[in-house]
Amino acid sequence: MVDLFLDRVLIENNWDQDELNTEREIIGILENRIIMLFFASAECEKCLEFVPVLNDFFKRLKDPAYIEYPKLLALIYISLDQSEEKQEKYLKELHKKVLFLAFEDPYRKELQTMFKVKDVPTIVVLRPDGSVLSPNAVQDICRFGCDCFQNWQESAELVERSFMLNEEFDNLNLRSATDPVRRLKYKTEDDKRKKKCSTGVEMHPRRRKGSQSIIRCHQV
């Protein structure tokens, strides 16, 4: 996963927009982490509607004001905006710990092609080894919130030091009855994509009653 950005410059979405351009910096911020590649555009209404949901999801997993042990997670915004001005406008709405590629970096389009992104918003979730855990986690984040990360983490077999604390083991008993099903979903994601490719038919999950509203995607 780290190799995907080793020869690139990642920028932090803080006031100074600090650049991470050395191998040591890139490895330090991405190694052994689940990576979320967020493809979006300021021109997309659904992308704007999704921002508050994503910010709340991310800060509850990364912001020390909300969690004692920030999770091994990185969020990288891959802008599909038509101008740098629009990219900057959208970045102002995103959490300050988000990383992004500069507008002039052609790698943005290469990543869009690499992960076959045709609609926005799209969040491609990658395991630390670079394999795809979810081709688009937008709907799952809307439905399940932070529970998604627990499932991603177990599917990726990612172990944190904080897991060794007694209170973490106590919390394992508090999972909902749907957790095993959701974890199985991510573990079989590759098989479902293979089946889709072989049959030409896309499989759609059944929508739950009482679930949160669905974020419809905008084709790019």
TrEMBL record:
Spans through the membrane: none
One Pfam family cited in the UniProt record for this chain: Thioredoxin_8
Signal peptide residues on this chain, from the entry's feature table: none
Residue ranges occupied by any Thioredoxin-like fold domain in the UniProt entry: 32-132
One term under GO cellular component: mitochondrion
Region span, Disordered: 190-212
GO terms, biological process: photoreceptor cell maintenance
Name of the protein in its database record: Nucleoredoxin like 1
Species, as recorded: Amphilophus citrinellus
